[in-house]
């Protein structure tokens, strides 16, 4: 069968279209700097709500993804197998269980941290690792030596992406993975989760600097002709479309669980998402466009609030707050480091669709062209002038789907505290982070940003069901959790520590220290040398 429009992809900036799923997964970023999106958002079969209600997480993922991946590209049995293997490693039979955090207020928590590295990023990166492997095996069938395609995955991380990417890619043939992390700025557990993986294809680079320095190096490598000529670079951050796609599943899965929960009263539904790069909540927006009956998606930001400011400042998307002095600090360090960003890359994908839906070209093709032009000029202004403003029709379209809340550092800590003393969910499993003595629930700081935002939304919309996404296990962020709960009766950190975190510090480690002052070219040469060495080791 020929691919449908939703199984073909274009760049938000217009230079590429008609691409296959495999092209966009392996390429990551479009050549014009844009992000890949499906040419159309699919609609689901009319009976999905009844027919799909009892599907397993994996089967639901398969039904949803089939809309975006042509069978001629990945046959159904293969796609099922990729999905099944990706989630077999999860620590919970439901993969992403929904917990009644505060039944009286219809507040539900979607636990997304039951994957290998205990962060929601596992949902996408376990799957992406298996996709890379699938495409490589197929491309390299019958080939030997230099004819084989070898991928070099490079990613920068403040902690969660790195460990989840390493976990998803370790031991995969024809694929090396390099993770740059800022030495001393990840949490100790996150660092150990990365450097205790000693597979030959995993390369940890500890950089003296900040996360932004790491990210700048990765961008420079992707833009470098020498690197591209000699190595096929691949991306694991959320610009990769496969990550967004994998995350759509749990929005539907959560909805089905909600409908089965005893407290469900058919009231409306709002979904609250702690956001940084806008990848997670964008998957929610796709789910909503496909027919998920959510009334609003609520963006929860920390003090790095570009998304919140967009909604509060009439559609101005600016790196710095309007009126801020030119030398204002860039990224703030907060208790929720995975959300410490200056700009949210995936917002570009949303803007494209909103521009497409609101512009007045006479044909779909014309509207598509206009949307690409709009997005290109906005993103150029972001680069050259530090920001842009969208037309009011685009802002209104965004407001019809989204609300936003900004949560301060202090509020993050007080939310962890209040939740511990007031929330005793009864339907949570053994692997939920609760105190065994009191049953008080322990939030990680990112999840706490979402819960603080949920509390405000509930005040304005009493009775409405809220599903708040839990993006990490609290044991990954011991400092913030201890700051909130240290000394509290009934709290002990060791009680919430997952088994697989115990004894990590005693394991063998493998990491390359990048000396202070190393240029990006220096890092490039190091990457090339390590790949060569790895490949020689195989021959
Ligand atoms: C990555 C991450 C986020 C932010 O997700 P985005 O898709 O970048 O918006 C939130 N919480 C945790 C724990 C994360 O690791």
From TrEMBL:
Organism expressing this protein natively: Penicillium angulare
One Gene Ontology biological process: threonine biosynthetic process
Protein name in the entry: Threonine synthase
Cofactor(s) annotated in UniProt: pyridoxal 5'-phosphate
Molecular function as annotated in GO: pyridoxal phosphate binding; threonine synthase activity
Cited NCBIfam families: thrC (TIGR00260)
Residues annotated as domain Threonine synthase N-terminal: 8-87
Ranges annotated as spanning the membrane: none
Assigned protein family: Belongs to the threonine synthase family.
SUPFAM superfamilies, per database record: Tryptophan synthase beta subunit-like PLP-dependent enzymes
Name of the top EC class for this enzyme: lyase
Keyword Nucleotide-binding (UniProt): no
Reactions catalysed, as given in the entry: O-phospho-L-homoserine + H2O = L-threonine + phosphate
Keyword Lyase: yes
CDD domains per record: Thr-synth_2
Key words, A-Z: Amino-acid biosynthesis, Lyase, Pyridoxal phosphate, Threonine biosynthesis
UniProt function note: Catalyzes the gamma-elimination of phosphate from L-phosphohomoserine and the beta-addition of water to produce L-threonine.
UniProt pathway: Amino-acid biosynthesis; L-threonine biosynthesis; L-threonine from L-aspartate: step 5/5
Listed EC numbers: 4.2.3.1
Positions where N6-(pyridoxal phosphate)lysine occurs in the chain: 121
The Tryptophan synthase beta chain-like PALP domain, residue ranges: 92-320
């Amino acid at each position: 069968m020929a691919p449908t429009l939703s199984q073909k992809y274009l760049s938000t900036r217009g230079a590429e279209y008609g691409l296959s799923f495999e092209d966009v997964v392996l390429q990551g970023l479009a050549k014009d700097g844009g992000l890949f999106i499906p040419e159309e958002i699919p609609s689901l079969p009319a009976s999905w709500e009844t027919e799909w209600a009892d599907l397993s997480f994996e089967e639901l993922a398969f039904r949803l993804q089939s809309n975006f991946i042509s069978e001629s590209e990945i046959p159904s049995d293969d796609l099922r197998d990729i999905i099944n293997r990706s989630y077999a490693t999860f620590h919970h039979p439901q993969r992403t269980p929904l917990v009644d955090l505060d039944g009286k207020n219809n507040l539900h928590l979607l636990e997304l941290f039951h994957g290998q590295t205990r962060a929601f990023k596992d949902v996408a990166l376990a799957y992406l690792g298996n996709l890379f492997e699938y495409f490589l095996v197929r491309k390299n069938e019958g080939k030997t030596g230099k004819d084989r395609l070898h991928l070099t995955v490079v990613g920068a991380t403040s902690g969660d992406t790195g460990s989840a990417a390493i976990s998803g890619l370790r031991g995969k043939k024809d694929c090396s993975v390099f993770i740059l992390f800022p030495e001393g700025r990840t949490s100790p557990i996150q660092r150990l989760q990365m450097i205790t993986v000693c597979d030959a294809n995993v390369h940890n680079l500890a950089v003296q600097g900040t996360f932004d320095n790491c990210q700048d190096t990765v961008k420079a490598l992707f833009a470098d002709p020498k690197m591209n000529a000699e190595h096929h670079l691949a991306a694991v951050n959320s610009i990769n479309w496969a990550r967004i796609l994998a995350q759509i599943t749990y929005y539907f899965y959560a909805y089905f669980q909600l409908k089965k929960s005893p407290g469900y009263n058919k009231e409306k539904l709002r979904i609250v998402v702690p956001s940084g790069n806008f990848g997670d909540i964008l998957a929610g927006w796709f789910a909503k466009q496909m027919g998920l009956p959510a009334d609003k998606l609520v963006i929860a930001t920390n003090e790095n609030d570009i998304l919140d400011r967009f909604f509060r400042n009439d559609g101005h998307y600016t790196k710095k707050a309007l009126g801020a002095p030119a030398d204002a600090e860039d990224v703030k360090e907060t208790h929720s480091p995975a959300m410490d960003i200056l700009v949210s890359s995936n917002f570009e994908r949303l803007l494209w669709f909103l521009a497409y839906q609101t512009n007045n070209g006479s044909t779909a093709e014309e509207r598509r062209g206009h949307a690409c032009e709009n997005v290109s000029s906005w993103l150029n202004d972001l680069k050259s002038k530090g920001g842009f403003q969208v037309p009011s029709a685009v802002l209104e379209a965004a407001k019809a789907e989204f609300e936003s809340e900004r949560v301060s550092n202090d509020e993050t800590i007080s939310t962890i505290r209040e939740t511990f003393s007031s929330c005793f969910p009864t339907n949570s499993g053994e692997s939920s982070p609760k105190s065994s003595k009191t049953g008080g629930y322990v939030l990680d700081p990112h999840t706490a940003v979402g819960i603080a935002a949920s509390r405000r939304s509930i005040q304005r919309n009493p009775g409405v069901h809220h599903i708040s996404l839990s993006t990490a296990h609290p044991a990954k962020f011991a400092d913030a959790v201890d700051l909130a709960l240290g000394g509290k009766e009934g709290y002990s950190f060791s009680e919430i520590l997952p088994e697989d975190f115990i004894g990590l510090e005693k394991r063998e480690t493998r990491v390359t220290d990048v000396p202070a002052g190393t240029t990006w070219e220096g890092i490039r040469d190091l990457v090339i040398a390590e790949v060569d060495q790895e490949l020689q080791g195989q021959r």
